[in-house]
């Protein structure tokens, strides 16, 4: 008996349970390696953001000490800034000291508020997350309703949906916020802008943020459902008499979820950026309005802290989206699309 015949007999006599466990262990290993790569990439991006913020301060016009203490800084405050940030040391020591401080959550002292930057940001962060979360809910609800009703419906409904998408996507958030304030609050007196119940007050600014995001989601999800309609399974479902809305609910949304999740990281980043404008417009006390005031006052430590926080949030969301994508797309669990 040849060596190849012996190997064939040995392989054919392997227990199916052992073979199945080996395949499962292989899938777990591939999934673990994929997650490790994602977390490593996230750390590198965050580290690059910290490095960029540090050297942007070094390359800024004028003296670094002036950027840290402001135009009204005294000799005492300048000396304190030099000691705190180690500006009398070589650049590489300043850099390593800065990275170590940031990784421990120490962003320095805000000279306009005389408080640690960490406390200044933590006091303002919840209203921003509250606004972004409400805007995300509004965007998802609107996108789901419009997609279900028009994804596979009549041609006139598709054209109307396309027009609505175009208007929402092309309208600047700032202008949309002004329109909502003028009509909904001032002219029709339906919702307050500032005073009132906390849950009610957030509706207008969240709508200004969420409507644009809804338009982008509608475009992506309707295109995905439009492609799914031409698949063989869709023709089979239509032959069984399924309605357009029924097809969207049972099959279309599942296909639309993949591209929507793919771009959700970018959309959330855009959402957080939009809070800068909306909070300033609606007079909300959050990270966006804090950043605007810090830039105008040249409060550099606060600007640096917010920049790193924004990078950290974006990296965390992008990593979470990648992990979620693995559970939505079964091919990734088997490593068939592991290159993503």
Describe this structure in words.
With 340 residues, this protein is mainly alpha-helical. It folds into two domains: 29-110, no CATH class; 115-296, MetI-like fold (Orthogonal Bundle). It has 15 helices and two strands. The chain has a two-stranded antiparallel sheet with strand order 1-2. The protein is flat and about 80 Å long. Mean pLDDT is 79; it is low at 4-11. Belongs to the binding-protein-dependent transport system permease family. Keywords: Cell membrane, Membrane, Transmembrane, Transmembrane helix, Transport.
Labels describing this entry:
mainly alpha; MetI-like fold; 2 domains; two-stranded antiparallel ribbon; 2 strands; flat
CATH superfamily of the largest domain: MetI-like
The first-level CATH class of the largest domain is given as Mainly Alpha
> Which fold name is given in CATH as the topology of the largest domain?
MetI-like fold
CATH architecture heading of the largest domain: Orthogonal Bundle
Q: How much is the average pLDDT?
A: 79
- The count of domains is 2
Side-by-side strand order of the widest sheet: 1-2
Subcellular location: Cell membrane
Organism: Agrobacterium tumefaciens str. Kerr 14
Protein name: Dipeptide ABC transporter
GO molecular function, one term: dipeptide transmembrane transporter activity
């Amino acid at each position: 008996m040849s060596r190849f015949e012996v190997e064939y007999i040995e392989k054919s006599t392997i227990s199916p349970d052992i073979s199945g466990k080996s395949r499962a262990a292989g899938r777990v290993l591939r999934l673990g390696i994929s997650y490790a790569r994602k977390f490593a990439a996230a750390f590198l991006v965050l580290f690059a953001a910290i490095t960029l913020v540090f050297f942007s301060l070094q390359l800024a016009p004028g003296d670094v000490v002036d950027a840290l203490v402001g135009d009204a800084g005294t000799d005492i405050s300048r000396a304190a800034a030099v000691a705190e940030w180690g500006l009398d040391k070589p650049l590489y020591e300043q850099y390593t000291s800065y990275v170590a401080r940031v990784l421990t959550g120490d962003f320095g002292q805000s000279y306009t508020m005389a408080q640690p930057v960490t406390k200044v940001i933590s006091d303002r962060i919840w209203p921003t997350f509250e606004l972004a979360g409400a805007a995300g809910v509004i965007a998802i609800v609107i996108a789901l309703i419009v997609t279900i009703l028009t994804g596979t419906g009549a041609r006139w409904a598709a054209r109307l949906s396309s027009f609505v998408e175009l208007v929402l996507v092309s309208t600047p958030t700032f202008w949309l916020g002004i329109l909502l304030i003028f009509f909904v609050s001032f002219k029709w007196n339906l919702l307050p802008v500032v005073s009132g119940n906390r849950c009610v007050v957030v509706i207008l600014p969240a709508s200004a943020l969420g409507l644009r995001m809804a338009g982008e989601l509608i475009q992506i999800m309707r295109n995905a459902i439009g492609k799914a309609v031409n698949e063989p399974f869709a023709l089979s479902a239509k032959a069984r008499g399924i309605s357009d809305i029924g097809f969207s609910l049972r099959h279309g949304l599942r296909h639309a979820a993949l591209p929507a999740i793919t771009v959700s990281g970018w959309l959330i980043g855009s959402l957080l950026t939009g809070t800068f404008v909306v909070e300033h417009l609606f007079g909300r006390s959050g990270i966006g309005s804090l950043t605007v005031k810090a830039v105008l006052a040249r409060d550099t430590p606060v600007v640096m802290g917010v920049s790193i926080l924004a990078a950290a949030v974006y990296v965390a969301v992008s990593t979470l989206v990648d992990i979620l994508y693995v559970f939505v797309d079964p091919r990734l669990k088997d490593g068939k699309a592991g290159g993503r």
